[in-house]
Design brief:
By secondary structure, the chain is of the alpha+beta class. It is about 30% helix and about 35% strand. It is built from 5 helices and 20 strands.
């Protein structure tokens, strides 16, 4: 059939007439679908199409009273130390204590052979008894001669001789008593006792050793470690600066009686019981420029041992309106110290500050900040020039995190996005 046949042309025209409405319906459906999807999709950013402000962690400046603590090196020392020595010469026979135990003052620790001293004591007692017998006889003779001398029955010389014999007998008794007392002391020295209460160390001699021959042999050492002393030093410059601040009223004393002292052990843990400062030396060491100080710390359990090196946290004063910031909030350089302050408009500006000592992992700010200001601690990498930021409270590592939002809401939004 020819292409320009009237019947063929008629069929072609009818097909085109049916196809055009179908294509129009499909296009309309697609447009409606795209419009619906566009209505459900949320806006990607704030009005105007810009980036949202970056969130940064901040802390609010809050002045308060703060104890100014200095951390100094120190060494523990027993509050009382006594060397147990043999004051009597002889063979050591017994040790009557357990090494490393606690002993009481007057407790017998060693026994030395006491036989020679006992014999000397008994001989002195016999001498005293003889002297007392001679005194009795001389006193009776003098009493009998007295009325005879008054009656001129005997010469005056005989009476004076009787009185002299009585006085000499009295002196002999006094000498004998002193000899008895000396012998008793030497006999007591054969039992070596603890001079003070405390903890005794190891025995320095064993049974069978000859001690006290020529010099007082050291047998053991007793140390009293409750309380225990902490000896430490502080820079003379820091001490003078503190005194000037106290006199000027910039600081106030930490306590009414003595400064508080805390002891840090070698592993970094803090000893549970606080101590108190006893005194500071009146002179400065010419070689080191340090002032010696001593503190007293309770040690009932004996966990602190003499000779141990420790760190001492000494609170000597308190600041009334002190400001502290985390260390990462402060930028320290040769040009000075500064922080980043977030204003009410979200703008971040650097602020020079004056930094003092370190307290509990934070810097003490002496000048440059006011109460209520917000200081950046985290999010420095999010800063984009002069763009504003969104301050959020900063949480220290390990502290409780803020309550999370309802997890159902993000899921609903995600479903709509599809």
């Amino acid at each position: 059939m020819p292409l320009n046949h009237p019947q063929l042309n008629s069929h072609t025209t009818d097909a085109r007439t049916h196809i055009r409405p179908a294509l129009g319906a499909i296009s309309l459906a697609a447009a409606l679908a795209l419009a619906a999807c566009g209505q459900s999709t949320p806006a990607a950013g704030p009005p105007g199409g810009g980036m949202p402000p970056a969130e940064v962690g901040v802390v609010t400046v809050t002045p308060g009273e703060l104890g100014l603590v200095s951390e100094l090196p120190g060494r523990l020392e027993a509050s009382r130390v006594a060397q147990v020595r043999a004051r009597a010469a002889g063979i050591l026979q017994k040790r009557l204590f357990r090494e490393g135990s606690d002993v009481k003052a007057g407790q017998t620790l060693f026994e030395i052979d006491a036989a020679p001293y006992r014999a000397t004591f008994e001989s002195a007692q016999a001498t005293q008894a003889k002297a007392e017998a001679n005194l009795l006889q001389a006193s009776a003779l003098a009493e009998r001669y007295k009325p005879l001398a008054d009656a001129k029955a005997i010469s005056q010389q005989e009476f004076v001789a009787a009185q002299a014999a009585q006085k000499q007998a009295q002196a002999d008794v006094a000498v004998a008593k002193a000899a008895v007392q000396t012998a008793r002391i030497n006999l007591d020295y054969a039992n070596v006792s603890a001079p003070i209460s405390g903890r005794i160390g190891r025995a320095l001699v064993t049974e069978g050793a000859l001690v006290g021959q020529g010099e007082a042999t050291q047998l053991a050492v007793v140390q009293q470690i409750d309380p225990i002393y902490v000896n430490f030093t502080q820079s003379a410059g820091d001490t003078m600066k503190l005194r000037r601040a106290l006199e000027a009223g910039q600081l106030k004393r930490a306590g009414t009686e003595a400064a508080s002292v805390r002891v840090l052990l070698e592993d970094g843990t803090e000893y549970a019981r606080p101590g108190k400062l006893l005194f500071s030396d009146l002179t400065v060491d010419s070689t080191t420029g340090q002032v010696a100080l001593r503190a007293e710390v309770p040690n009932p359990g004996g966990s602190l041992l003499p000779g141990l090196y420790v760190r001492v946290k000494l609170e000597q004063a308190k600041a009334s309106n002190a400001i502290t910031l985390p260390q990462q909030a402060v930028t320290r350089s040769a040009q000075g110290d500064s922080v980043m302050v977030v204003g009410a408009d979200g703008k971040v500006t650097p602020r020079p500050v004056k930094v003092g000592a370190q307290q509990n992992g934070q810097w003490v700010i002496l000048d440059g900040l006011q109460a209520g200001e917000q200081v950046m601690v985290d999010g420095f990498q999010k800063l984009r020039g002069a763009a504003p930021v969104k301050p959020v409270p900063w949480l220290a590592p390990g502290s409780a995190a803020p309550v999370a939002a309802d997890p159902a809401k993000p899921k609903a939004a995600a479903g709509n996005a599809g």
